[in-house]
Amino acid sequence: LLGLAALSTSEDEVNIAGNELQEMRSFYAAEAGLEAGAAALQDEYDTTGVPPTIMPSGSLAINHCNVSYVTVDDGAPTSRVLTKGTLAGLHSLVKSFTITSVAESEVENARMILQESFEAALVPIFQFAVFYGNDLEIAPGPDMTLLGRVHSNGNLWLQANSSLRMDSYVTASGNI
Question: Which of 32, 109, 165, 170 gives a 20 to 30 Å CA spacing to 134?
Fold first, then answer.
């Protein structure tokens, strides 16, 4: 009787472990669907500079799972001041999206539904005192005060033979 009970318990444990494996496969496959939708949105912004007119959707097969994802436009963009991140304090046009990804396992019929909501903010660069596309070197002769943000998409080199003041955030994609 003890042997039969042990066999029954082991069989249950194997079934539970198999179910957990299929659930994890479905979870990661659904997560890949979210990433595919977000990448398609990012590509549209990178290519055109504006939100997509046709929302990304699609299907793929990953980890023995069939995945489908759909992106929904959450309404008109809103103009507001950003409160978090490196662009805090700047005016922006914010657009919201929601991506839903569904993954179904071909093995055990495990099903996972994930949803991600996010915002894309377009920030006009005229809000910067200096916005430079490459390495930027500032070496003023007389006293200088920059009223506003300073940003370089490369390195930022600062040298002051006199007084150099900056009254806002100073950022660089490279080193300062």
Answer: 165
* Six token digits for residue 140: 């003023």
For the chain, the C-alpha Rg in angstroms (whole number) is 26
Neighbours of 5 (CB within 10 A): 9
Structural contact between residues 58 and 143, judged by C-beta atoms closer than 8 angstroms: no
- pTM equals 0.69
Residues in the chain: 176
| Separation of alpha carbons 95 and 42, rounded Å | 13
